[in-house]
Amino acid sequence: MKHWLKYAERMCYVLSQGNHVCDIAILYPTETMQAYPEAKPDLMFEVSLFLSNHGLDYDFIDYSSLQRADVSGGSLKVPSESYKVLVLADTRAMHEETLAKVQEFIRGGGIVLTVGDSMDAIQAAKAYDRKDYEAIAGDIRGMLVPDFTPGSGEGKVLHRRISERDLYMVMDVKSGDEMTFRAVGKAEKWDALHGTITPLQVVKSDGVCSTLRYDGASGNSEVIVFSPGESVAASVETSSRKSSVSAKPVKGEWDITVIPTMNNKWGDFRLPATDGLIGVEAREFSYKAVGTSIKGSGVYGYAPYMRTRNLPASVDLDAYLSRIPDTSGWDLYPFSWQYGVFDSPGSQGYHGLKAKVDEKFLILDKGGHQLFAADMYVPSDGAYEIIRKGVAPYRIFIDNGVVASGEVLLTKGWHSLLVAYKDTKETAYDLMKLVSSTWETRDRSMVMLYPKGADGPKFHDLNDSVVASSWLATDFVQFDCKRAGKWQYRFETAPGTRTMRMTVCGEIDRIKVGGKTVADDRIVRTGNTYEVRLPGDDAGTKAVEILGRPSLGHPGPAFFAEPVQMVCDGGKLRSGDWSKAGALKFFSGGIRYSKDIRIDGGRSVSLDLGEVDATCEVSVNGKDAGVLLAGPYEMDITPYVSEGLNHIEVLVYSSLANHYQTIPTPYRGQARSGLIGPVKLVYR
Fold it and tell me: Cα dihedral sign for 614, 617, 578, 633?
């Protein structure tokens, strides 16, 4: 962390110096939104994002600043900034003073471009249809000398002029791509991570612009500075120089040490808060109900509580329901009483869960008719209240009879529930695409039964210790799988797992690891928690098979009340994505990779780690060799090695993506972590 903080300190300082330089101002359409309440700034954001991703920097400007701006020399000038292009996106209304300034800018030689709907009074240099972003970017580059041009067309830039220097922060440029800057002079790379300055070679310069080749990793950022002085011309790499470089792959397994880092004392990573660190956990389980066709896979706490079928709208629903359909072969419809349907927690606003989960678990987004069925176990004879949430069902059946009222008399034992919805609306939904606001637009519903007079759903607010639906831990009639008794579960350990701790809702009859039954003397049970000691000679992953008897209301993965926690020691792992190594799929934290590597003498040598996700610290023979926060993940280790065997350690810390795989959030990302490789020694 200290290395990143030092990097951030240097970047914050240098990017706060001087003045921002860009050619484009984009008017925020406040006036249009004031005049037309239904108007939104979506098109403006789409245009700005496209320009930014293709090397054209911009500023948003509000109408008040625009009104006060000066026009001279074909530029629109505000304090410390000057623009040659003004972009108006979906601008259908303006104050008279704003329009006057736009017209003054046009008369003064400025460039005004309109996109989408615009006022007839605006005499723009060119008007563009929606989505015509490539034409906009191309025309801007043709109308002026662009400040920055990535050769491939992709990349971002931030330019600041600091006294006599031009500082460019370039981002997301492809490795090896040529970049052209509207600047000349001595070019240098300022490395904010290490605090070093390196001269850069200029491929070509015409006295106005300079072209350099980007030697960083794709997707990263670099700071490039032009200062007064002579540029260094790029040299041609000869074949003899190329042939003097050789690479030797580092193969085989690495010894690994798992280092948990997520302290959940204050509930920062999962609610409720827990003492200790969140380490390696199995959170996903394949399952099968013994003697039935019920099988699948899912995350702990989720279960196939219901079954579902979708019918085309052309089907006569009344005729279909009159035949009392057999629901046993319908698709499983799993959900969690805490989080609802996986990845469908309902509207959450910005940046994650907001204290509650939508209690309407039946999502009506398939089109046509949607039917849901469940087996219910009624605990005692009596009257039961039917609670409906959201869209009203077309029909509700209990034990094949239509329920017409909000109350029903039931006897103790199993009963069937069937809920039908007619003519649902097909609606697209992808949580991963809702980056900022997970607003729910689909129709939803739910039908539950409670004993008459019992407390109903409980709303959870920000002061509660859990984020959950209103059904959680209340006295509703339990849904379960009537025909199921024993269940089989399967998951994998992580490399070097020594102990497992699992808390279940029910009883465990048998545990197998690697196909062998674990002896009773290696299992310690305390209540519903089982501590399992594994043999100490296992360095890889092993399949775990469990035969269990879930308690009522906890079928499938809901048998597991929480993740299976593992303690690992002495594991081995090849370079690659640790997310593919059993239970490490959900591990966010650190892993130390250790290996003795034979190194040849006589030449300098670099350790090339290939890809790393996300950061790493390298030590050689017990000496710190450096920290790498971004690619290229390569460093010179010549000062730390000697000819023969050398001990290399690479401590890799991942992002939170692995941990987020079981959390309903659009910020999840891909579970990809570790020393990805390929690892090699590079001799020069």
Answer: positive
Question: CA-based diameter of the chain, in Å?
Answer: 93
Question: Between 133-143 and 42-53, two packed helices, what is the crossing angle to 10 degrees?
Answer: 60
Q: Which residues contact 602 (CB under 8 A, 6 or more apart)?
A: 643
| Cα–Cα separations (whole angstroms), residue 684 to 199, 245, 376, 606 | 21, 5, 72, 8
Q: Are 682 and 634 in contact (CB under 8 A)?
A: yes
The model's pLDDT over 320-377, given as tens digits with 9 standing for 90+, comes to 999 888 998 999 999 999 999 998 988 876 666 666 789 999 999 999 999 999 999 9
Phi, psi (deg, nearest 5) at residue 402: -70, 135
Please choose, from the candidates 438, 565, 572, 556, the residue with its C-alpha nearest in 3D space to the C-alpha of residue 506: 556
The model's confidence at residue 239, banded by pLDDT at 50, 70 and 90, is very low
Give 395's Cβ-side CA count (13 Å radius): 21
Q: What contacts 136, CB < 8 A, 6 or more positions away? A: 47, 50, 51, 87, 113, 115, 128
Partners of residue 546 on adjacent β-strands:
489, 511
Give CA–CA dist 79/297, Å, rounded: 60
DSSP bridge partners of 512? 517, 545
Instruction: Report which of 683, 636, 647, 675 is spatially closest to residue 194, judged by C-alpha positions.
Output: 636
At 665 the three-state DSSP class reads coil
* d(C-alpha 528, C-alpha 506), whole Å: 7
- Rounded to whole angstroms, what are the CA distances from 472 to 38, 265, 285, 448, 464? 38, 23, 22, 12, 12
